[in-house]
């Protein structure tokens, strides 16, 4: 069956009869390798597509000079010459690293960091950097001082975050693949809200900033947003050729579904808000289909994971600490104390929440560290290979629902109600992938998440391939808006 997406009131896409057509990133790479498409031709077509959708989606933060950075990496790299984008919190030579904030200067970086180096080693040609909420701290790219990024399926709604602009460009067909990173769901959230594939890898799988390695709980992982499972699988295989963590089993190049597995169905949130019935129904239906394909489905609870209501409080305390560290090491260093006045209200409130919660931080960190062991232990105790759940715990909100000028408590309650599952894998360090799974009453995509123990990205990709075969993912141009 096809994952149905009904017509939205204001849909924006860039698919057309040009050099890129309806190709995914693998298709573009194959056309370039075969000599059927030139790197410059692909870049020009993508740039024109970006200019078509950006006025409506506000996905682009900064442009590189015409033609982009050029195809980097070896000519036989997996995505040689494929046009792409990098999130604006990642140091890339020639682009400002502004992290979604007016508090940071727009001075272009002189050199790329390790994350960008691994990204371009796969062969991609970066054309632009993409919009994100301030410091990646929220789930919607809405701002106090400028227009928000919007969902191309319906521009009245949020594109999600924090890899916001990347998701908008890939979903709209402007680009076939774009960079993202994930500290609380920031790849998987926009993947779910835009009908994309988004894999948050095992902690330490891909290149990362040195500063992250010294955090008491490193919650951030790098990755990409794509329209097909094969593009995500190809990316991880290519990234691994550039840099592989010897402490983890290799992902390899996963090319299709795998063996039958025992899958735990999760129908509870880590928060008091639970999971909206509209989000849960298509995932239950998917579980039934997987059972029909020979997989064993069992029910799991948060008690199996030893997660209780204190998890959210601990995560938010730690989130406030991370906000403080990020601002202190970027904005303050760049502009001094005056930078605080340029921050969005929600960011300032997060900083103050971190200050107020400082006495409880050591206990919160100790409990968050224990999550990894409990998470890994659950797979052994329950004998499951992977968990299946909705990616989101509420449907896509309209623009304004997560306005950063809202009273802080109201803003946080709305955010927690929306993202009641994804942070678990950032804290545990285990991998998780979001794949398209149905649509809500407004016709916007929804997602299902598979999560596994550390090092099991290959198994998750195999399951994702199977979902894609059972329910071919709808493209934004498949039905008329």
TrEMBL record:
Domain of life: Bacteria
Annotated keywords: Hydrolase
InterPro entries: Amidase (IPR000120), Amidase_CS (IPR020556), Amidase_dom (IPR023631), AS_sf (IPR036928)
EC number, as in UniProt: 3.5.1.4
Domain (Amidase): residue spans on this chain: 47-461
GO molecular function: amidase activity
Hydrolase is among the record's keywords: yes
Record-stated family: Belongs to the amidase family.
Protein name: amidase
Catalysis performed (reactions): a monocarboxylic acid amide + H2O = a monocarboxylate + NH4(+)
Gene source species: Tsukamurella conjunctivitidis
Pfam families linked: Amidase
Family matches, as PANTHER family: GLUTAMYL-TRNA(GLN) AMIDOTRANSFERASE SUBUNIT A, MITOCHONDRIAL (PTHR11895:SF7), TRANSAMIDASE (PTHR11895)
Organism ancestry: Bacteria, Bacillati, Actinomycetota, Actinomycetes, Mycobacteriales
